[in-house]
Design goal:
about 500 residues; alpha+beta; Rossmann fold; Uridine Diphospho-n-acetylenolpyruvylglucosamine Reductase, domain 3; Phenylalanyl-tRNA Synthetase, Chain B, domain 3; six-stranded mixed beta sheet; five-stranded antiparallel beta sheet; 14 helices; about 40% helix; elongated
Length: about 500
C-alpha cells in the first residue's frame, strides 16, 4: 500500500509539472501573440529533445490554440548515416502522431562551398529557405522552432563575443522575421522560458525518445564552445549566470522598445525614402541623441537589406563616426550599401548614381574669375585672395591654387579619355582613371566628377585632389580660391 501511495504521489507531481510546462507555454504564446486562430503552423523538428518536446506540447495545446500542425525536417547531409537516421526518426514520429510532414534533403556542403559563409551559417540559411518553402506550400508564413532559455542565454554571450551593440543583447526573440530567397518567414519560439533540463524531463516523462546529435558535443562551432566551456566557467563566478544573461536581454529589449517608440517621430521628421535610398536630413539627424541615431540607422539598414543578420555593431558605429566627415565622404557597408555625406543630407542606399554628390555634368564651362558661375547642378565661386586670407575649410569642395601658375582661362568639364594630372604630393603624372580607381571613386560617379582645367593641364579633381604643380607655396603671391556648391535639384543654370 505504501508503495502504491508513493507511486501515486510521484505521478501526481509529474502530471502537475507537465501541466505547468504546457500552461507556461500557452501563456507565453498568448502574451506575445505568437499564434492566430486557424493559422497553420510548420513545426521544425530536428529529432532532438527540444524540438520533440515542442511538438508534443503543441499537440496538447492545438485545440486551445485553434491551429493545425505540419512537421518539417531537413537532412543537411552533413552527418551521413546519423542524418539519415534522424530523418527516419522524424518520419516515424510524425506518422505515429498522425501529423502531416515533409522530410527532405539539401546539399549544405555545396551551398557552403559556393557562398563562402561558415558551415553553421550556410546550414541555417538552407534550413530557413526550406522552411519558408514548406510554409508557403501550406498557406502560412509561420514556423515554430524549439529554441529554449539556454539557447537564448548562449546567443546573448555569442553576440557579446562578436562585439554586439544593444540590439544583440536582446538575444533570441519570441517572434521575428527571417528573409530568405523564397520570401519572408515569421519564426516563433514558444519555449524561450523553458530550459533544456525541462525539455529533457518532459520527454522522459512522456516516454519520448529523442535523437542525440553527436555534433552538439563538437567544440568547433562557437555556440558549442560557449555551451560546454564558457558557461560552466562563468557559473563558477555566478551560479545564476543564465538568469543574469536573460535579465540583461529583457532590459535591453525594454530599452530598445522605448527607443523605437521615440524614434517614430524622429524618423518622420528626418528620414525619407527615395527608391532604394534613404535620405537623412543632415542638420536634423545630427541633432538627435546618439541612441536615436543608432536606432534609426539600424532600422534604415534593416529595411534596405531585409534583415540585419550580416550587420554588426561596428558597421553602425562607423556610420555614426562618418556623420562628422567632410562633404563628399563615403563609407561602404555590408550587402552593397553605401553611406554618403552630402551638403545638407546623408544618403544610404544601393543606387550609386543617386548617392553620388555630383549632378550629371556634360560639356565644358568657362569660369568667371573672379565671380560666380552657374553650371548644371553647381554654383562655382572664384575669388582671388592673399595667402593670409586662406582658411582651412573642412570641405572637399573648396580648393586653393597658386594664381600665377593657373593661367588666364579656367574651365570645368567631365573627365576625358587619356586625362592625366600630377596629384598633390606626387612627383609623377598619373592617369586620371588610375587615380580614381586608387582613390576608390565608385565607377558610377567617375563621369560626374567635375574636373577643373587650365589651358595646359588639370588643376583640380573636385572632391579629391588638386594638381601638385598649382599648390600654394611660401612664395605664392596671389591665391585662386574655388568653391563648388551643389544646387538644389529644382534649380538649374
Amino acid at each position: 500500500m505504501l508503495s502504491i501511495t508513493y507511486r501515486s504521489v510521484e505521478m501526481s507531481k509529474r502530471l502537475k509539472h507537465q501541466q505547468s510546462l504546457e500552461r507556461r507555454v500557452l501563456h507565453f504564446i498568448g502574451r506575445h501573440h505568437l499564434v492566430t486562430d486557424k493559422t497553420p503552423l510548420v513545426v521544425a523538428v530536428s529529432g532532438g529533445q527540444d524540438s520533440v518536446c515542442l511538438l508534443h506540447v503543441l499537440i496538447e495545446l492545438k485545440e486551445e490554440l485553434g491551429v493545425e500542425l505540419y512537421v518539417a525536417h531537413l537532412d543537411h547531409q552533413i552527418r551521413g548515416a546519423e542524418s539519415r537516421a534522424d530523418a527516419r526518426y522524424v518520419t516515424n514520429l510524425a506518422h505515429r502522431l498522425n501529423i502531416p510532414a515533409t522530410i527532405e534533403q539539401r546539399d549544405v556542403q555545396s551551398y557552403h562551398a559556393e557562398r563562402g559563409a561558415s558551415l553553421e551559417e550556410s546550414a541555417r540559411e538552407v534550413r530557413y529557405t526550406f522552411l519558408a518553402e514548406i510554409a508557403r506550400s501550406i498557406g502560412t508564413d509561420r514556423v515554430v522552432v524549439g529554441h529554449t532559455l539556454d539557447d537564448h542565454a548562449e546567443t546573448v554571450l555569442m553576440h557579446l563575443i562578436r562585439g554586439t551593440g544593444t540590439t544583440g543583447l536582446r538575444g533570441l526573440q519570441p517572434l521575428n522575421r527571417w528573409q530568405t530567397g523564397s520570401g519572408g518567414l515569421t519564426v516563433i519560439r514558444p519555449l524561450l522560458e523553458v530550459n533544456r533540463q525541462e525539455t529533457a524531463e518532459y520527454c522522459q516523462q512522456h516516454r519520448l525518445r529523442p535523437r542525440i546529435d553527436a555534433s552538439n558535443f563538437s567544440l568547433s562551432p562557437l555556440r558549442n564552445r560557449i555551451r560546454h566551456h564558457l558557461l560552466p566557467l562563468l557559473q563558477e563566478y555566478n551560479p545564476q549566470i543564465v538568469d543574469a544573461l536573460v535579465r540583461t536581454a529583457r532590459i535591453a529589449d525594454d530599452d530598445l522598445g522605448l527607443l523605437d517608440e521615440l524614434g517614430v517621430c524622429s524618423w518622420q521628421e528626418t528620414v525619407r525614402r527615395q527608391g532604394d535610398t534613404f535620405i537623412l536630413d543632415r542638420d536634423g539627424f545630427s541633432a538627435l541623441a546618439t541612441g536615436l541615431q543608432r536606432s534609426l540607422l539600424r532600422r534604415a539598414i534593416g529595411e534596405l537589406l531585409g534583415s540585419l543578420k550580416d550587420v554588426e555593431a561596428r558597421h553602425v558605429e562607423e556610420v555614426l563616426t562618418g556623420l562628422t566627415l567632410p562633404t563628399g565622404s563615403r563609407l561602404s557597408l555590408p550587402g552593397g550599401l553605401l553611406f554618403s555625406v552630402d551638403y545638407n543630407r546623408y544618403l544610404l542606399g544601393f543606387d550609386q548614381s543617386l548617392l553620388c554628390p555630383f549632378p550629371k555634368l556634360t560639356g565644358e564651362f568657362t569660369l568667371k574669375v573672379p565671380g560666380n558661375t552657374l553650371l548644371p547642378g553647381w554654383s562655382v565661386e572664384a575669388a582671388i585672395i592673399t595667402p593670409v586670407e586662406m582658411q582651412k575649410e573642412q570641405d572637399n569642395f573648396t580648393a586653393y591654387l597658386c594664381w600665377d601658375r593657373v593661367g588666364d582661362r579656367v574651365v570645368v568639364r567631365p573627365r576625358r579619355r587619356g586625362d592625366r594630372f600630377q596629384p598633390l604630393g606626387m612627383e609623377q603624372v598619373k592617369k586620371l582613371g588610375e587615380f580614381m580607381i586608387d582613390a576608390r571613386v565608385p565607377r558610377a560617379w567617375r563621369q560626374r566628377v567635375p574636373v577643373v582645367c587650365s589651358s595646359q593641364h588639370i588643376l583640380w579633381v573636385v572632391g579629391w585632389r588638386i594638381d601638385d604643380r598649382v599648390k600654394v607655396t611660401p612664395g605664392t603671391g596671389k591665391v585662386l580660391r574655388l568653391h563648388f556648391e551643389r544646387l538644389p535639384d529644382d534649380v538649374s543654370c
